[in-house]
Design brief:
Elements lengths: L1 H9 L4 H17 L2 H21 L4 E9 L2 H5 L29 H8 L2 H11 L3 E4 L13 E4 L2 H6 L4 E8 L3 E8 L2 E7 L4 E5 L2 E7 L7 E7 L2 H11 L1 E4 L6 E8 L2 H59 L9 H32 L23 H18 L5 H45 L5 H35 L5 E9 L8 H40 L1
Antiparallel strand pairs: 1-11, 1-12, 2-9, 3-8, 4-5, 4-9, 5-6, 7-8, 10-11
Helix pairs in contact: 3-14, 6-8, 6-9, 9-13, 10-12, 10-13, 11-12
C-alpha cells in the first residue's frame, strides 16, 4: 500500500492537471477582489440603465406586395389577333402576349435599385438630416426649418454639406456652412434664406405654424449616398418560393419616416412599371395608327373603283345571280379573304422588322393567335432577348459586357426572325396560288358569267379584305387605349406599411449581456493593470538597488 502511494506521488502531473491547478488560484484570487467587482458592476449597471433610458425605441416596419403576372400586365400593350377569324393560325411566330412568368429576383433587384431608392429619397427630402445641437436623434416631420434643393444641385452634389442654422427674431438668420473643407457664414434678415455654394443653391424655409428661436444642425448628402444606405438597411425578400409576394421591412426609431419610405418606394415601383407598360403600348398605338391610315386610303380607292365600275356597267348585285356559283364561291371567297389577310399581316410585320429604325424595338405581336402563342417561336425569343437587353441597360449602361453579349444575341435572333417571316411569306404564296388556281378553274367553267361580273367580284373581294384588316386594327387600338385608361398596379398591396408591436431596440437582453461583459472587462482589466503596475514598481526598485 505504501509503495502504491509513493508511486502515485512520484508520477508526473499531466498537462490538464497543471492547467487546472494554475487556473484555480487565479480564479480564487479574482473572486477575492469583491470591491473591484462591486465597483465594476455598479459602473456596468449604470451604463446598462443609460442604454435602456437614452437609446430610442426602435421598431420594425413591414409591408407586403404581390407582383402581378407579366401576362396580365403586358396583355394591354401587345397586339394579339386571336379574335380575327383565325388569322395566322398556321405560323409559329409568337409575340409579347404569350405570357411570361414573374421573376421575383428581378423584381427584388428593381426594388433595391439605386434609381428607385433615389427617387424615394428625393421625394421625402431624406437627403437632408436635421438634428438639434448635441443630439444624435434625426428629426422627421418636426423640423422647424426645411432645406430645399433643386434637381441640378442634387445631381451636382458629390460630398456632404454641413450647415449650422441659428434664427432669432432679433438677429435674423445666421447660417454657417462647411463644404469641401471650407467654412462660410451667411446672414439674412429672415426666411426664406438662399445660400449659394460653388454653383449649388440651398434654400431654407421655415415650416408653417412654427415660430420662436431656432438652432439646428443640417447635413445635406448626395441622394445617391442616402439611396445606397437605404438599400442596405432595407430587407427585401420573397415571402415564399411558391408565391409572388415580396416582403419589405426596415428598422427605425421614427416610425412615420419608415412607413413613408416603404409606401413611397412601392408607389414609385408601380409608377415605373406603368411607365414602361405605357411606353410599350405607345409603340403599338403608333404602329396601329399608321396602318389604319394606310388601310383607309386603300379602302377608299377600292370603293371609288367599285362605284365607277358599277356605274359604267350598270351592275346592281351579281354575287347570287347563279345558284351554283354562289354556293361554291362563298366558301372559296372566305378562304381567299383569310389568305389575303394573312399575307397583308405578314407584309406589315416584314416592313416593321426590316426598318433600321426599329432594330432594337419590340416587335408588335400582330402575328399572335391561339396556336402561335408558343414560347419557342422566333419573335417570342427575339422580344424576350430585347426585354432582357433593355433591363440590363436600365440597370447599368451599354458599355457593360453583359449588354454587349445581349446585343449580339439580339442580332442573331433578328436573323432568325427574318427567316421565319420569309418562310411564312413563301408558305402564304403557295396557299394563295392554290386558291387562285381554284378560282380560275371555277371561273373558266362559268362561261355564262360576263367578264364585268368577274371584275366586280374581284373588286368586292379587295374591299372585304381591307375592311377586315381595318376592323381588326381598329379593335386592337381601342383595346390598348382602354387598357391604358384602366391603370393596373404592378405591385398589388397586400399589407400597407405597418409597425410591429414589439420594439427591436433597446433590448433588455442586450443590456444584461452588456452588463455582464462590461463588469468582467472592467474588473479583470483593473486587476491586470494593477498587478502589472506593482510588478513594474518592484522591477524599478530592484534596478535602483542594483545600481546603488
Amino acid at each position: 500500500m505504501n509503495n502504491e502511494l509513493e508511486q502515485e506521488a512520484s508520477r508526473p502531473i499531466a498537462a490538464d492537471d497543471r492547467e487546472a491547478v494554475g487556473l484555480r488560484p487565479i480564479i480564487a484570487g479574482y473572486l477575492r477582489q469583491r470591491t473591484v467587482i462591486l465597483i465594476s458592476a455598479i459602473i456596468s449597471l449604470v451604463a446598462a440603465i443609460i442604454y435602456l433610458l437614452v437609446y430610442p425605441k426602435t421598431y420594425e416596419i413591414m409591408a407586403r406586395i404581390q407582383i402581378q403576372d407579366d401576362a396580365s400586365m403586358m396583355a394591354s400593350g401587345g397586339i394579339g389577333l386571336g379574335d380575327a377569324a383565325g388569322v395566322m393560325k398556321t405560323f409559329g411566330l409568337g409575340g409579347l402576349s404569350s405570357g411570361s412568368g414573374v421573376s421575383i429576383d428581378d423584381e427584388i433587384s428593381t426594388l433595391r435599385s439605386n434609381s428607385l431608392m433615389r427617387k424615394m429619397v428625393t421625394r421625402l427630402g431624406l437627403y437632408a438630416e436635421y438634428r438639434r445641437p448635441l443630439s444624435f436623434i434625426k428629426l422627421y416631420g418636426e423640423e422647424p426649418v426645411h432645406v430645399i434643393c433643386d434637381s441640378t444641385t442634387l445631381d451636382a452634389l458629390d460630398d456632404k454639406v454641413e450647415f449650422r442654422l441659428t434664427a432669432t427674431d432679433r438677429d435674423g438668420v445666421t447660417i454657417k456652412a462647411k463644404a469641401d473643407g471650407k467654412k462660410e457664414t451667411f446672414h439674412f434678415d429672415g426666411f426664406p434664406a438662399e445660400v449659394r455654394l460653388h454653383g449649388k443653391t440651398f434654400r431654407f424655409e421655415r415650416v408653417k405654424q412654427r415660430a420662436g428661436d431656432v438652432k439646428l444642425d443640417i447635413t445635406v448628402y448626395p441622394p445617391r449616398w442616402v439611396a445606397e444606405k437605404a438599400a442596405d438597411d432595407f430587407l427585401i425578400e420573397d415571402y415564399s418560393k411558391s408565391a409572388n409576394i415580396i416582403e419589405l421591412s426596415c428598422t427605425d426609431y421614427e416610425r412615420r419616416r419608415a412607413k413613408d419610405m416603404l409606401n413611397v418606394l412601392i408607389d414609385y415601383y408601380n409608377q415605373e412599371a406603368y411607365d414602361y407598360k405605357k411606353a410599350q403600348s405607345d409603340v403599338s398605338l403608333n404602329f396601329l395608327n399608321e396602318r389604319i391610315a394606310h388601310v383607309m386610303d386603300e379602302l377608299e380607292k377600292v370603293e371609288r373603283n367599285i362605284e365607277r365600275y358599277k356605274a359604267a356597267n350598270k351592275i346592281t348585285d351579281v354575287e347570287y345571280d347563279i345558284q351554283y356559283y354562289a354556293e361554291y364561291m362563298r366558301d372559296l371567297k372566305g378562304r381567299m379573304i383569310e389568305a389575303e389577310t394573312q399575307a397583308n399581316m405578314i407584309a406589315m410585320m416584314d416592313a416593321f422588322v426590316k426598318n433600321p429604325a426599329n432594330r432594337y424595338k419590340l416587335v408588335p405581336s400582330l402575328l399572335t393567335s391561339g396556336a402561335a402563342e408558343t414560347e419557342g417561336s422566333a419573335i417570342y425569343l427575339y422580344n424576350q432577348a430585347l426585354l432582357e437587353r433593355e433591363k440590363a441597360i436600365h440597370n447599368s449602361n451599354e458599355q457593360n459586357p453583359m449588354v454587349a453579349s445581349l446585343t449580339t444575341q439580339v442580332d442573331r435572333l433578328r436573323e432568325t426572325v427574318f427567316q421565319s417571316i420569309n418562310n411564312a411569306q413563301q408558305s402564304m404564296q403557295l396557299t394563295r396560288r392554290a386558291l387562285e388556281k381554284q378560282e380560275r378553274e371555277l371561273l373558266d367553267r362559268m362561261g355564262s358569267v360576263p367578264v364585268q361580273e368577274r371584275i366586280y367580284v374581284d373588286y368586292k373581294r379587295q374591299q372585304e379584305i381591307l375592311q377586315g384588316v381595318y376592323l381588326i386594327l381598329l379593335q386592337k387600338r381601342e383595346e390598348i387605349s382602354l387598357a391604358l385608361g384602366q391603370k393596373t398596379d404592378r405591385a398589388k398591396i397586400v399589407d400597407t406599411a405597418f409597425v410591429k408591436a414589439k420594439p427591436v431596440a433597446p433590448r433588455k437582453v442586450f443590456a444584461l449581456a452588456g452588463f455582464i461583459v462590461l463588469t468582467l472587462v472592467l474588473s479583470i482589466g483593473w486587476i491586470v493593470c494593477r498587478d502589472q503596475y506593482r510588478l513594474l514598481r518592484k522591477e524599478m526598485k530592484r534596478t535602483d538597488t542594483a545600481a546603488d
